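Lab notebook, design round three. We kept the backbone fixed and only want residue identities now. Task for the bench partner: fill in a sequence for the structure below.
Input structure tokens:
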């Protein structure tokens, strides 16, 4: 899943870059920098909830609820942090320095969470959140600045960059799972801290790669005029250090309180966007209303999609049959399925949309979002069937069911996620496109926080069971499919608000 904000600065000249494989040479440097950052980010994803239970709850299943809640809150704050990271790059220190500063904080946080202390662990997560906010959205923006808006290679360049994201997401769980289960630990007692240390080194590789490769950018992403002094970087570093305790506090108070904070932020942001839309006339008002409505459905999608790093991890660890004649399929490797699916299915999805457009049958924005919700719901329908009809005498469901769940969810993601950012640039009030992008990230973050709350209910007070999983995932199916059908059926009304925007 990408957090790209890809519009180049209006009127900024595009340098004459050397070309490599038909694209500007810096694209490949950014590709590898993003690959290693995503390697670090996804390398720890599978281990976080398992580590919290093993390290801080003595392996007791009663710790699953807190682990799920912490994971969801962490992801929510990662997305919320992107709002502020873009501002820092735009107005204070430039994109290049923001990326480098964010990489340093992320690496430090990854090494911190390897220390077996619950307070240091959450402080490390808070440090990762702050660093990710400065790194992730801004390196994506750098890609957009390599091409003019009219350059026909632009979409292809972002597709290549997106492959870097998914290549890192694919390889990281395989490698870190192998380290934890086979090299430094065992399937029974994985060495989770080794996972975090490996991810920290991966982040350092990203930092070094970008530091030495940034000259290729020929000044793109350097500080704004008059802001070249390193003093500003020092101020950002000091400010970031001061923000870390605030993020730590939001993690510590729990997902329920964080949800209140995020909801207040979302309501305030929505009000600002709507007021601006009303000022710009009826058409702008309608487009803003449509965008905010779709944000609500986006929250619901990610609330259930992001079970991948929380309840699905416990499901894989405890209820899925991973035994292949004595060889145990590592829990971590399930996290690579989505990345493989995106790499394989994305070109097919792109071709389907183009073909449908040629037949004047290309679904509108609300219909694509509705399809995304329905496919996500179908994944939960398969889990309902498996947990009610395919449970073995040993209390396990077949291996293929969870793999298929990830594949179906990936189809839903391709219906929804790639068009979200494009939708914002088309529907947000002209003067507040950046704030609209922040609304997209914030709605995704709220969905991630709710995913942790929901996963906590799935695990219950005593840990996940077949019955608790069936109950929770049944609710997920009905919630997603009902919302998807509502959006599909109401698409003609929503399309009126879009005023021709496709």
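Proposed sequence:
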């Amino acid at each position: 899943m990408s957090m790209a904000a890809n519009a180049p600065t209006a009127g900024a000249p595009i340098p004459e870059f050397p070309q490599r494989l038909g694209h500007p040479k810096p694209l490949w440097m950014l590709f590898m920098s993003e690959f290693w950052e995503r390697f670090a980010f996804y390398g720890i994803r599978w281990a976080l909830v398992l580590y919290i239970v093993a390290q801080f709850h003595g392996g007791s299943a009663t710790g699953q609820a807190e682990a799920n809640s912490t994971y969801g809150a962490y992801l929510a704050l990662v997305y919320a942090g992107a709002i502020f990271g873009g501002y820092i790059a735009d107005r204070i220190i430039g994109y290049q320095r923001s990326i480098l500063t964010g990489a340093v904080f992320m690496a430090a946080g990854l090494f911190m969470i390897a220390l077996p202390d619950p307070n240091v662990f959450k402080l490390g997560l808070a440090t990762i959140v702050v660093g990710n906010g400065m790194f992730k959205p801004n390196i994506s923006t750098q890609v957009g600045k390599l091409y003019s808006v009219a350059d026909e290679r632009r979409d292809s360049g972002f597709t290549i960059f997106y492959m870097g994201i998914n290549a890192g997401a694919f390889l990281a769980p395989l490698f870190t799972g192998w380290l934890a289960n086979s090299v430094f630990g065992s399937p029974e007692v994985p060495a989770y801290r080794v996972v975090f240390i490996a991810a920290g080194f991966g982040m350092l590789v990203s930092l070094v790669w970008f530091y030495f490769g940034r000259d290729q950018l020929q000044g793109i992403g350097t500080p704004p005029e008059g802001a070249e002094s390193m003093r500003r970087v020092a101020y950002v570093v000091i400010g970031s250090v001061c923000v870390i305790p605030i993020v730590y506090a939001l993690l510590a108070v729990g997902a329920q309180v964080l949800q209140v904070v995020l909801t207040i932020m979302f309501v305030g942001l929505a009000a600002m966007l709507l007021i601006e839309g009303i000022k710009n006339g009826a058409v702008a008002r309608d487009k803003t209303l449509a965008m905010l409505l779709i944000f609500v459905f986006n929250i619901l999608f990610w609330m259930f999609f992001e079970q991948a790093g929380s309840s699905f991890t416990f499901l894989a660890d405890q209820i899925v049959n991973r035994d292949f004649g004595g060889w145990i399929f590592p829990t971590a490797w399930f996290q690579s399925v989505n990345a493989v699916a995106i790499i394989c299915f994305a070109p097919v999805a792109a071709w389907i949309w183009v073909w449908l457009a040629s037949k004047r049958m290309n679904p509108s924005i609300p219909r694509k979002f509705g399809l995304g919700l329905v496919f996500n719901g179908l994944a939960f329908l398969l889990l309902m069937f498996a947990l009610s009809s395919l449970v073995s005498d040993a209390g396990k469901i077949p291996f293929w069911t969870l793999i298929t769940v990830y594949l179906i969810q990936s189809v839903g993601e391709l219906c929804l996620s790639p068009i979200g950012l494009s939708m914002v640039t088309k529907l947000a009030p002209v003067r507040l496109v950046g704030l609209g992008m922040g609304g997209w990230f914030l709605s995704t973050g709220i969905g991630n926080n709710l995913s942790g709350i929901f996963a906590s209910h799935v695990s219950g007070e005593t840990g996940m069971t077949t019955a608790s999983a069936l109950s929770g995932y049944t609710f997920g199916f009905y919630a997603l499919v009902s919302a998807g059908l509502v959006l599909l059926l109401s698409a003609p009304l929503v399309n009126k608000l879009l005023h021709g925007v496709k």
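Keep this in mind before ordering anything: The longest strand covers residues 19-20.
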